[in-house]
Design brief:
Layout lengths: L4 H33 L14 H19 L6 H5 L17 E7 L5 H12 L5 E7 L6 H9 L4 E5 L4 H4 L8 H14 L4 E4 L5 E2 L1 H7 L5 E3 L2 E2 L6 E7 L2 E6 L15 E4 H5 L13 H8 L7 E3 H5 L4 E2 L23 H4 L13 H12 L1
Parallel strand pairs: 1-2, 1-4, 2-3, 6-11
Antiparallel strand pairs: 4-10, 5-12, 6-10, 7-8, 8-9
Bound molecules: uridine-5'-diphosphate-glucuronic acid and manganese (II) ion.
The site of manganese (II) ion has 4 residues, from loops.
Length: about 375
Amino acid sequence: MNKSPRMIRFKSRVLGVMVVSVAATTLLLLLFGSTLRLPPAPANMSFLRVPLRALNDFQQQQQRQQQQQQHPNAFSSSANAQESCTSGGAQRVEGLPPLYIITPTYPRAEQIPEITRTAQTLLNVANVVWLVSEDAPAPTPALTSYLNESSLNTVYLRAQMPAKYMKAKNKPRGVANRLAGLNWVRANAKEGVLYFADDDNTYDLRIFEQMRWTKKVSMFPVGLVTKLGVSTPIVRLGKVVGFYDGWIANRKFPVDMAGFAVSVPFLLTRPNATMPFTVGYEEDGFIKSLGITSADIEPLAFNCTKIWVWHTQTKKNTAAVPIAQNNITMGTNLDVIKGLLWKDPKGTATTTTKKKETKKKKS
Ligand code: UGA
Ligand code: MN
């Protein structure tokens, strides 16, 4: 059958239009199909799945704000103290081994932000006993009230670095307070797992679920450690055959403080295990005192192929310059804010800091 060239042109054009419209419809369905099937959102709810508790908190907060606008002189920190600092709550799951997490901390401008970050991570982990052990001459009120308001299962401990180390250039940071945590665990725990979680790290929740089943000592990679970017056991065919770390320094176990967990029943079989006040050798000394061999180490994070902990660290901040007291600031929210700012117990912001700040502004 002969087809005229015009007929062929017409047919191919029709075919072209059909192909384009089918493709466009598929694309539209792919893009918006799932959204179209969603039921309309209630007026007071967003598409984000905000927990109901958080919504209630938000409504209460709005009411408070309205009240404060109507009665601007009624500012008081006690109104703030009523706020719970955590929504959700510590979950308790029957049958799951508990995690005893020891966090050494000390008063400084970054303390509450660091503790907030760590607390909110742990809120997502079941059966946690969080031992917050402070290196300070007296409890820091902002810290103890944060812990009291938290729905986490917390234990506040305090132990200062011995005076003889305080003067040293390189200090054994967090050792005295970790040891206080260790003593608490020895006296109060029978099962589960011990983990040293410094306050300046970032934790992927999956590492907590894996360390929960530690039989003796488990290990895993820690990111952002030394110029190598990671500190990790070297694993071949499921066995630890060495360590990759930027500072081996004759250590038998060259690992980071955040890179290992210990079974509590196993720890209790080692009554003399302790952490030395030797800068750089705290981890090695502690693990050696547990009397294990490389064959005992359980590599986690899928044979140490995942980085699920980072030594993030936080930029150091100086003490806040005091808020000027004048008719612009007084009788406002700044009366409350000034109580939240970090003040160096040895004095407020130095003149050099102020100079630096002005320099920054100019540049
Ligand atoms: C790491 C180890 O965690 C320290 O035990 C060790 O002394 C140090 O390396 C080292 O070998 O030099 P690092 O990350 O360098 O520590 O120090 P920080 O993060 O400042 O301190 C570790 C932990 O101890 C933190 O949780 C911190 O809040 C706490 N800390 C720090 C104290 O409790 N007291 C202090 O004076 C300083
Ligand atoms: Mn650190």
